[in-house]
Amino acid sequence: MIEIARTDDGLTFCILEYSSELDKLRIGDFEYFKKHLGMADYTANFRSWLKRPSVFLMLIIFHGKIVGWTMNEKWNKPSADGRPVFVLRAIEISPGLSRKGHGKDLFVMVSRFLPGHMITKPVNASARAFFESLGFILPDIHSPVNLNDHPGYLILSEERKPSLKSIIMDRFNANILSARQKKFPKELIVENPGEQQDGSADMEGSPDDGVTQERADSEAEDSSEDNDSQAAEDLPVQDRIVNDTEGEFKGDQKMMTPCKCGAYSAGKFLQEGSRCGTAFVCLQCGTERYFLPLKK
């Protein structure tokens, strides 16, 4: 675990490195992903994500309890300028801490921690307005990332990141850059902020936690509950298959022949009980490709 910041009110911002680090933490009172996506076991999802080197999980911890989190994954397609690309898949703040700016702080910190460009797919108008206030824009012919085959995505280019405003960022910038050098030792650090455009980085007047969890029973039109599902509809298919498949996920396996859906990648699941062995399940459609019984 890499600690990045510790605030005066007891909040700790950190990057998880190993799934075993979750053993000492408790899950906060999150509701949105549980209610709308059936994500009943946050710990299991976090453990699954941490097994993939392409995923980066930043947390907010308060007295040993996870009260905020964001999951970001490296995009497997290159950018035009050669810089890495990361997809913001999900971000959520515990209802008790929402509307206090913690969601904004979490986003600004993870955006500075990750090198290269960021993309995300807002699921509604409120989420889109929030991300546009952070500098995300619709891609055009000059965008460093080709998103022609991914309608609805917004992009935050690397040159716009340094102009994002956050008090906590000013205090702990050195810590964030140190963590970034540790995790991405070969990547450049772009520190020259681009010119701020209208609404691109001015956080004042924008919804503090525009993509964070609001109380589930709120009926107000400006509730941030819908925004908490930012990128929820775009959570990796692999995560849903891993969560739904019986057995312990043991990693990926490239099969010699494609599945009926055309994918080659399969997940290995160690199963016990009446059916003891390893199941190879397509990570695109969930079809079992092969079962290898355990020799007794």
Automatic annotation (TrEMBL):
Residues 13-159 form the N-acetyltransferase domain. GO terms for molecular function: acyltransferase activity, transferring groups other than amino-acyl groups. Residues 219-228 have a biased composition (Acidic residues). Transmembrane segments: none annotated. Coiled coil: none annotated. Pfam families: Acetyltransf_1. It comes from the Archaea. Residues 192-242 are annotated as: Disordered. Keywords: Transferase. InterPro entries: Acyl_CoA_acyltransferase, GNAT_dom. This is GNAT family N-acetyltransferase.
